[in-house]
Amino acid sequence: MQRIRDLGVGTAALTFNISGVIFGVLLTAAACLLRREGPVTGFSALMALTGIRQVGIGTFSENTRTPHLIAASLMFVSGGILTIAASRVFPVPWAWISGTLGIITLVAIILFEI
């Protein structure tokens, strides 16, 4: 069975892992900039945590087992929560879309673990 984490160890590993780290760094930087511009401190903190966890996924490939599993689990959960939290920041209809996708993400994580 092919999973997304398999990209981090195959022929595309270098590209996949570097892009994951870059995405995490950019997400964390965006959270810092957002924090400076407005009062959405909880949202920006959650956004920064999600970015840091994404850096963890790019840094620890599937071969490292436990560190990768911890980083991936935390990132997917915080990403789902971040998407739900974004529904309070975005205007309608983006708020509805964001909240719905966050709920779908968290339900999928729960169902995947069962």
Explain the layout of strands and helices:
Blueprint lengths: L12 H25 L3 H19 L6 H21 L7 H20 L1
Helix pairs in contact: 1-2, 2-3, 3-4
Low-confidence runs: none
Alpha carbon gap, first and last residue? 18 Å
C-alpha geometry: globular
- In total, the number of domains comes to 1
| Main sheet record | none
Helix content: over 70%
Give me the secondary-structure category: mainly alpha
- The SSE order reads HHHH
Q: How much beta, percentage-wise? A: under 5%
Helix count? 4
DSSP strand count: 0
Q: What does the radius of gyration come to?
A: 15 Å
- What is the averaged pLDDT score? 88
Structure description:
- It contains four helices and no strands.
- The protein is an all-alpha fold.
- The protein has one domain (4-113).
- The protein starts with 12 loop residues before the first helix and ends with a helix.
Q: Keywords, please?
A:
single chain; 114 residues
How do you describe this structure in short?
This protein has 114 residues and is mainly α.
